[in-house]
UniProtKB/TrEMBL annotation:
The entry's keywords: Fatty acid biosynthesis, Fatty acid metabolism, Hydrolase, Lipid biosynthesis, Lipid metabolism
MF terms (GO), sorted A to Z: [acyl-carrier-protein] phosphodiesterase activity
GO biological process: fatty acid biosynthetic process
Protein name: Acyl carrier protein phosphodiesterase
Matching InterPro entries: ACP_PD
Annotated source species: Alcanivorax nanhaiticus
Pfam families hit by this protein: ACP_PD
Length: 212
């Protein structure tokens, strides 16, 4: 899962959102030194990744990519899933997408002191460039994936992977709409983050509940 999904599967608190994003920035970080709420968020991030990476439907979709690009299929699907989440927000959540994204930005900025330096820089760029709204169109997904390919430090065939997504778009979209509620139920069942206001300027007014 990518940034929008991890934030949306966090609790509505600064420390939870920092922890749920921290999973991608753990180099040099001592997990045992984290505060309990941040550590619980990190554990939730890892649960989301494990559930996603081991899910039969996700594994099947990864195998559909060409051999040259299959190594990067997980990355491509993570970004694509944020696209589907953005597109179908009103189906999956009862809250306003625009208000939820703005709250995510506010909470991440409020929690910068809890982040390692590299994460601080990345989150600042996310907010300044409104990245959570940048995957609304498939063309933007392709551009994002090509940018990731350009940052890989070895020769690869990742660039252009969106060409393999386009013919399967409808199938992937329908599969996501069935998979994401399963993921949300798994997070809720695990209950790794019992909600508590954490004193970081939290306003727990935006819930994570599914629509319906």
């Amino acid at each position: 899962m990518n940034y929008l999904a991890h934030l949306s599967l966090a609790q509505p608190s600064v420390s939870s959102k920092v922890g749920n994003m921290l999973g991608d920035f753990m180099r040099g970080v001592d997990a045992d030194a984290l505060s309990m709420p941040v550590r619980q968020g990190l554990d939730n991030h890892r649960l989301v990744d494990r559930f996603t990476d081991s899910h039969d439907w996700v594994l099947m979709q990864r195998r559909q990519f060409s051999p040259a690009r299959r190594r990067f299929a997980g990355v491509a699907l993570d970004v694509l899933f944020d696209h589907f989440l953005w597109q179908h927000w009103s189906v999956l959540y009862s809250s306003s997408r625009e208000e939820s994204i703005q709250r995510h930005y506010q909470d991440l900025l409020a929690g910068k002191n809890l982040m390692p330096e590299m994460m601080q820089r990345r989150m600042q760029r996310m907010v300044e460039n409104d990245l959570l709204n940048r995957y609304g169109e498939l063309q933007q997904v392709g551009q994002a994936l090509d940018a990731i390919a350009g940052r890989i430090r070895f020769a690869n065939a990742f660039a252009g992977i969106v060409e393999e997504i386009i013919p399967r778009y409808d199938e992937l979209e329908q599969g996501f709409l069935e998979f994401y509620p399963e993921l949300t139920r798994a997070v809720d069942k695990a209950g790794l983050e019992p909600f508590k206001e954490d004193g970081c300027g939290v306003s727990p007014s935006v819930d994570r509940g599914l629509s319906g």
